Amino acid sequence: MEAKMTMKKRYLYEALSGYAFALPFIASISIFLIGPLIYAFIISFKEFFLNPEASRWVGFTNYTKLFSDPTVKRALLNTTLYSLGVVPTQLIIALILALIVNSDIKGKTFFRVAYYIPTVTSTVAVSVIFLYLFKADGLVNALLAKFGIQGPTWFNDVRFALPSIMMMAIWSSVGNYMVIFLAGLQDIPSELYEAAEVDGANKFQRFFKITLPMLRPIVFFNLVMSLIGTFQVFDQAYVVSQGTGGPLDATMTVVLNIYRTGFRDFNMGYASAMAFVLFVIILILTLIQRKLFKEETY
User: Does this UniProt record's set of keywords contain Transport (predicted)?
Assistant: First the structure.
């Protein structure tokens, strides 16, 4: 009997110790994440201009207004086009780079570092660099002039502003996905390749029959993370357009529009509604991808 009581006290002590260690994290996430999320969801149903006392309940007005707001529609279109251009391109390049640095080439450690460095570089710094590279008399147009091509004013041209940001995003983030692909490639048993080679499979057959199927979970993870990142693009569009989303809303993204609505127009209720609609869009797209890849949660 005493032994059972001792065991119960021990389990109770261990449980209380575990909760005590977790308490700082639980408190911080409740105060700085869960609490603000709940409050933002509440004010999304209000006309809220920074003064809680002057706010008033408007129900679903903020949400219904989104469907008739031309700026919201343009921002969503730009963000969708941005995602469609960036996600597949950067994942394909990342996989190719991972295959290269996973091979037996000389200096592969150097190339791994070189490809990854842009990922840890400040987004603002990268944006400033690209502003200089793509300006009217910048390096890109100077190189095009060598071939007799008149380069555009990239970030000030409605046709080229968004594609320019896409190129910037691909260059600065491809290294991150390359490292994840590389980890997946190194986790594939070499025996599979040896057996396939004995059976007469060539490099392309080994890639499509072994590498890609074995990388399926990695591809799914990278695809989801890349899609979330592109739908939350803000830094590059803000720096390039100086916060205006110009020219003519060509670089206006959903998150930039949320920022402008909340911190320039101080319409926090409407901005919160935009943020939760964006959350729903990302959630739906993630669930669709999981269904397509037949990923299961355990």
Answer: yes
Question: What pLDDT, on the 0 to 100 scale, is given for residue 7?
Answer: 72
pTM as predicted: 0.88
Per-residue pLDDT for 2 more than 70?
no
pLDDT at site 175: 92
What residues does CATH 1.10.3720.10 cover in the chain? 66-292
As given in the structure block, the two tokens for residue 125 are: 């710094």
| pLDDT value, residue 297 | 46
pLDDT tens readout for residues 276-287: 999 999 999 989
Residues 123, 128, 129, 133: what is their CA dihedral angle, to the nearest 10 degrees?
A: 130
* 52, pLDDT greater than 80: no
How confident is the model over 37-60, as a mean pLDDT?
Answer: 87
**Third-level CATH fold of 66-292:** MetI-like fold (1.10.3720)
Is the Cβ–Cβ distance between 151 and 145 less than 8 Å? yes
Neighbours of 105 (CB within 10 A): 9
